[in-house]
Specification:
The chain is mainly α and 147 residues long. It has helices spanning 3-25, 42-52, 54-66, 70-77, 83-106, 132-137, and strands at 31-34, 37-40. A two-stranded antiparallel sheet has the order 1-2. α2 packs across α3 and α2 (42-52) packs across α4. The longest helix has 24 residues, at 83-106.
Length: 147
């Protein structure tokens, strides 16, 4: 896993976890302001992610050797944001994309499958053979061998 994949993975898992537990997380006394962003404390986020993302636990010893400042680690992972605002932004963008798709269909735009690259020619055979799947499809069962 490269660093961008790790960043995206921890971001997605953190937002999912926050969304599922926002009822109590929003009232928990772990909120701080860091570089103008209101978010849970770095230690809380890192502790939570160490359980949610196994790849992160492999990298954390190295990361902590490079910087033992949890706020800098959160910044490096791209997690210095207010999860409430981020989730609201995601909801709005999803609603806009769904409205765009609906509007496109209502304007007469229909999504089509791509054309086949080669013509399909079914095998021609004068005599078909019965195989077990065809026997089952005829609703006779596999024990009925009458023809």
């Amino acid at each position: 896993m490269n660093t961008e994949q790790l960043r995206q993975s921890v971001k997605d898992k953190w937002l999912s976890y926050y969304e599922e537990n926002r009822q109590w997380l929003s009232r928990l006394g772990v909120w701080v302001n860091c570089d103008g962003q209101r978010r849970p404390s770095s230690g809380f986020i890192l502790a939570t992610l160490s359980v949610l993302e196994p790849q992160l636990t492999q990298f954390l010893p190295l990361i902590v050797d490079l910087s033992s400042n949890p706020d800098r680690i959160i910044l490096a992972l791209g997690l210095n944001f207010n999860p409430e605002e981020k989730l609201e932004g995601l909801r709005k963008s999803e609603a806009n994309s769904q409205n765009g798709e609906t509007a496109g269909l209502s304007e007469g735009k229909v999504k089509m499958l791509p054309a086949a690259s080669e013509a399909f020619n079914p095998p021609s055979s004068s005599k078909t053979t019965k195989v077990p799947s065809q026997l089952d499809e005829s609703c006779r069962g596999s024990r009925d061998h009458r023809d």
